[in-house]
Amino acid sequence: MDLWFTEKQTSSFGITAKIKQTYVSEKTEYQDLAMIETEEFGNMLVLDGMVMTTVKDEFVYHEMVAHPALNTHPNPKKVLVVGGGDGGVIREVIKHPEVEKAVLVEIDGKVIEYSKKYLPEIAGKLDEPNVEVLVNDGYMHIIEHKNEYDVIMVDSTEPVGPAAPLFERGFYQGIFEALKEDGIFVAQTDNPWFKADLIQKVNKDVKEIFPIVRVYGANIPTYPSGLWTFTLGSKKYDPLEVDETQIPEMDTRYYSPRLHKAAFVLPKFVEDLTK
């Protein structure tokens, strides 16, 4: 008998994947967590019924959270990742030699534990000497660390459950205050097909706080609709003014110097959401 996992991305639409086996199915203190092996995408982390990452396509998301901001800031020495307990964004962050300290704050320690066990390709850099891993509330960490970080990255689930506060205006204000005077932040901001209102709200909130705000996109097949957006807020540096010839080639599979500015060219219906 074939077994399939389906993520209901809306009340009337979903994606489905054939399962080889289930490693973990557990209700943690914060959410329902499953780690499964799929035939098409390899091992997959699922939180509250939503696909968080898979071995096959994870590189797109993790590279696009990390590299546009880090290649915009001229000297990102200290970087914070809120959420992202699978470790993929941290793995990309520490590819930048100028990063002296990368801090991960993940509220659910079980995500870290099971990612290390079942997603070693993604979580394999969490024990590096320049990485600090904290099992804590990212919202509170932001509030308690003023003027400390060069770059802050919000690698959250969708705005439900423990991640809901990470999409509020007060959180973005806290990020602004936790950044140094020339700091940059980036957050995943869902997809324009099913969550257009969320993109509009986040863009409005961030524009009220940061002088420079840019939205960019990427293709991630296991995320709702496949078209995903990210919102970058900067106090000083504009990613569109970066000299792409000065961006070093890196060990990446999706992001590249040529893609840096191209990612900010949005389909018109998405661009209209950011006006």
Automatic annotation (TrEMBL):
BP GO terms, sorted: spermidine biosynthetic process
GO terms for cellular component: cytosol
Domain (PABS) ranges: 2-235
Binding site for S-methyl-5'-thioadenosine: 31, 106, 137-138, 162
Alphabetical keyword list: Cytoplasm, Polyamine biosynthesis, Spermidine biosynthesis, Transferase
Active-site residue list: 155
Reaction(s) catalysed (UniProt annotation): S-adenosyl 3-(methylsulfanyl)propylamine + putrescine = S-methyl-5'-thioadenosine + spermidine + H(+)
Residues annotated as binding spermidine: 62, 86, 155-158
Gene Ontology molecular function: any one: spermidine synthase activity
EC number: 2.5.1.16
Family statement drawn from the similarity comment of this UniProt entry: Belongs to the spermidine/spermine synthase family.
Function: Catalyzes the irreversible transfer of a propylamine group from the amino donor S-adenosylmethioninamine (decarboxy-AdoMet) to putrescine (1,4-diaminobutane) to yield spermidine.
Record-given protein name: Polyamine aminopropyltransferase
